[in-house]
Amino acid sequence: MGTATGPASASILEVRDLYVRIASRRGIVRAVDGVSFDVPRGGALGLVGESGSGKSMTLRAILGVLPAEAQVTSGEIRLDGVDLRQLRGSDINRLRGPKMAMIFQEPMSALNPVMRVGWQIAEGPQVHLGLSRGRASERALDLMRRVGIPDPERRFRAYPHEFSGGMRQRVMIAMALSCDPEIILCDEPTTALDVTIQDQILRLLTQLCRESGVSLVFVTHDLPVVAQVCHDVAVMYGGQIVERGEVRDVLLDPRHPYTLGLVRSAPDFEYVRESLVPIPGSPPSLVSPPSGCRFHPRCAFAEDDCRTSETPLRPLPGGRSTACLHYERTLEAVEADRACP
Amino acid sequence: MNTVNAVNAMTDVAGAEPLLSAREVSVSFPVGSRVGARMRREEHLLRAVDGVDLEMRRGEALALVGESGSGKSTLAQALAGLQPTDRGEIRFDGRVLPASRSRADRRRIQMVFQDPYSSLNPRMTVGGMLRELLRVHHVVPANRVATFSAELLALVGLSEADLSAYPRQFSGGQRQRVAIARALALRPDVLVADEPVSALDVSVQATILNLLSNLRDELGLTLLLISHNLAVVRHLCDRVAVMYLGRIVEVAPTEQIFSTPRHPYTRGLLAAIPRMTEGAVDDSGPAIAGDPPSPLRIPAGCRFRTRCPIAQPRCETEDPVLAAGHDHAKHFAACHFAFSSGAGAPRPDRSENEQNA
Fold this sequence. Notes:
The structure holds two protein chains of two kinds.
Chain A: E1 11-24, E2 27-40, E3 44-48, H1 55-63, E4 70-79, E5 82-83, H2 89-95, E6 100-103, H3 107-110, H4 117-128, H5 133-146, H6 152-155, H7 165-177, E7 183-187, H8 195-212, E8 215-220, H9 223-229, E9 232-237, E10 240-246, H10 247-252, H11 257-265, H12 304-308, E11 314-316, E12 320-322, H13 327-339
Chain B: H1 3-14, E1 20-30, H2 34-39, E2 45-56, E3 61-65, H3 72-79, E4 87-92, E5 95-96, H4 103-108, E6 109-112, H5 126-136, H6 145-155, H7 172-184, E7 190-194, H8 202-219, E8 222-226, H9 230-236, E9 239-244, E10 247-253, H10 254-259, H11 264-271, H12 313-317, E11 323-325, E12 328-333
Parallel strand pairs in B: 3-8, 3-9, 6-7, 7-8
Antiparallel strand pairs in B: 1-2, 1-4, 4-5, 9-10, 10-12, 11-12
């Protein structure tokens, strides 16, 4: 326990019982409340949920870039067998780049506005891989070519404001890949982009990750985007994971009423329903969350035990899991939906 | 078929005078200095909307879709009278609307904006906002203002008690309901909704979309919905107009747009939508390559040709007009090959369609 190096396991990232608390004027916000998941080597995990579900905080906790008011209070975050919580800041710094990298939603605020784009990409390899200025700039040019930036020799000397949103996100991808990381953490990387550009970026990201065997954690609120990029998905609600499994199973055949609610309320492109079914009520306060299952105040299937019992993730057949005590009722609803779409 | 005939054809289809129509409407914005623009070989005027014809019948729901920068919001603002036009005319209920509209004219086309956090006055209660509107526009007699305000809130699913609340006391979805109530307070004929749900969470989006759909049925509203989300559009609208770089490139009934898109841009736009069912993306190239050109450097000829998978030499010189096909009276597309034999078919050839086109 707590050893600095562990045996190489099948998972590149293991998160165990992660708790993140944020101090606010209204009290302690329980932003992440006992989250556990694994990301297999070369795998892609989607974290989906609405705003305030704790998905971005989970990602920031892994990278060690939580806002000042927020703090990991307990849990383990093992990257390639090393518990990041046992490391000092300077040691974690050494891992950012060669081991893990991040792609943010708004590339304009993640890039340095007064530094030429090429040198921003070359900075990582200079610092982390010890490349010379010349070698690092060659590497940056090569990366710009790989992410599809036209005319890389000229664009190397451009500033971020001279790029379009899609091109900036390509720059972010080039920076993330620049030190050959094991895993890339993406926080809504295409939310600010047009659908045609989103399509380009998603294709590029999945193709590059497949080629170089990089693992992905992909945070988004957009269910179809997860279906495009990830093999596995974890659905978050009120700071907890409520359902976990393969994307196809979870989105098309959910086992938690919240997942069902998300799928039913999203207008689906493929077929049009008579009317959309919104989830009643609003997301829970994380200062004083509801007792028992956090979804019970909004749940049509809630019973008495949902208000009192804790609802940890339980395994189901087929390698998936749900936090719902009465998941059979979701199953019945899904079958009823199918009978009369 | 030339543009004027196309417009007439649209009217014939409707069978009646359209409620709201735009004819050759252009809106442009001056950018920087003339000298600087000439040095950059760019235009001095940014043509956000560049000669658009559009008609809406009473009671229909029309969607405007396109990428950011396509001019869809500017066009909507021009129709609502919030943006002066440089050319063209906007007709409403059989009359040409003057450049500066009377209060009575403004009342009849109302708008709901994208961000309910910035479009409501934070220092006014909901009741205060509605009272002001109702008084200025004399919608109801003074002694009816209170009851009418309560009725408006009931219409959008809020309670009378919310009249004394400030916008900050509401969630995003509730604020959007307030914004809709404010627009409906003037009993408009046309409601223009500019990305009304894109700032909201998925589960809340559904409530607002259902509300818009119900209001349309109950009040017989004519709805112009601007959205980048084609799934939303498919759910709510009867017809779809696709914009690209300031022009409408395709207009058709919703089901035709989705089942047999005629313009290569529309086909690409549809192919780019992530599907819930498809699984991991395949190795094929993107649906549409490259970024849209700057509206300061609109390509000559067909403006989509720089990204078009089926562009021919003819497209560089001839600007295609928005025209209907012979057997497709309600389906208009601005592409030389939209209705040529088998043209529903030529799919973008993805191998030729690499990223850096």
